[in-house]
Amino acid sequence: MAAGSAFYNDPAGHKCEEAVPEFEKAFELSGSWKALRAVAICELQLERDGDAIKHYEDVLKLGGDQIAAGDKAQIDSDLRALKAGVAELTIRTNRPNTKVVAVRQPSQGLPVSNHYTVTLEGTMVGIHPGNYEFTASADGFPDITWKAEIQNGSQTQKQLEFTEAPAVPGGGGGGGGGAKPTVETERPIPVTVWIFGGLTIACAVTSGTFMGLSTAAKSEYDDQNGVAPRTEVEDLRSDLVTKSLVADVFLGATVASAGATLIFFLLRPEVEVEKGKEAHLMVLPSVGTTGGGAVVVGTF
Description:
Helix content: 40-55%
Strand order of the largest sheet: 3-2-5-6
Radius of gyration: 41 Å
Number of domains: 3
């Protein structure tokens, strides 16, 4: 009772959903009509009208003369209000242990949701009038949803027919609610391979260009050495050294980049892909006379 009362009197608001099982356990252990009345009060607020009516009537029988006049008057008032508005909803199903969720949207405030279990014999529940959206579920079958306006004091019938899901060609039969994509593995070329591959080409082109320039500079240096003035020869020699050094640097970068490209290619991981989903993305190197770059090519 203390645990149920703590939930019910929570400063943030009545936590009736959590309080009900605590009060039910208290009633099971003690048989006290006070514990059962606490259950009924919570059910009233949760809009479990049918259960609240039954438990209020049981409270009157169990408590009898022990119930104070004021408390009895309040119970009688709650009972009259419940019986005046309660609606009967009878649900039948062709699958055992069907779960039904009933959600009512009041004119103000948050939606009110309640859960019911429907047996093959059918289940009748007393619910609050209003506009509802129902969702019924059974293992292995697609959910059934429907909307209904439940009137005061009305009696509504609902027959649930769960049917096998249509078979999917090549999918191994029905019941799954749709085709499951085939999962395969492949080793796609990662973006890093394309990046380092493009870098390798760019470095190779640059290295080759400066090798050509270095050869031309060497030829000019040899022709002018011993003929042209000393300062001009020194400039030609400095130009030759610079171009040779640049060619060597880019040659080394080409070798390193090519090695990295090979490593990334050989160590690329396997990934799972769903057959039928043919989206691909490729980054291709692009080299021109004035520079290098990359082109992104995609299919979706």
